[in-house]
Predict the 3D structure of the following.
Amino acid sequence: MTLDALRDAIPDYAKDIRLNLGSLAAEAILSDQQKYGTFLAAAYGARNRAVIDAISQWTEDKLSPEAKTAAKAAAAIMAMNNVYYRATHLLTSDEYRKSPAKLRMNVIAAPGVEKVDFELWSLAVSAINGCGMCLDSHEKVVRKAGLSADQVQAALRIAAVVSAAAAVADGEAL
């Protein structure tokens, strides 16, 4: 399935999602690698096969093999980190926040692409997974690296719309 086919498969009750997919595909505030990598990381983070396939096919010639791997790695590592850090944040005892995670996270230090891009993709996946601690952490890194609030918001919009497309696809069994 292509991105256009995915958009066409989204029913009229979710027309806003369909339209937002189209407008965000033309987003120009992010670099191409940042934009396409955010779409791909968000697709993997949203965990819907039709959405993953459509966005993977759409980004096939737009991302280097290293960037594709890094976008998938951002989704994978955030699947772990978002659960762990969201839980330590939600627990009332601060004992857990003070203890080391003792989880391997080497890909964050050496993602194979520009660190700011990997952090932006991690931010997008963290938004999908609802981890406030990770959102704060990754937002600070990308802002310190020079990204603007508008660029952060663009990545968050992509994450929101890709997640919504996945929810519709799940509901409709696309």
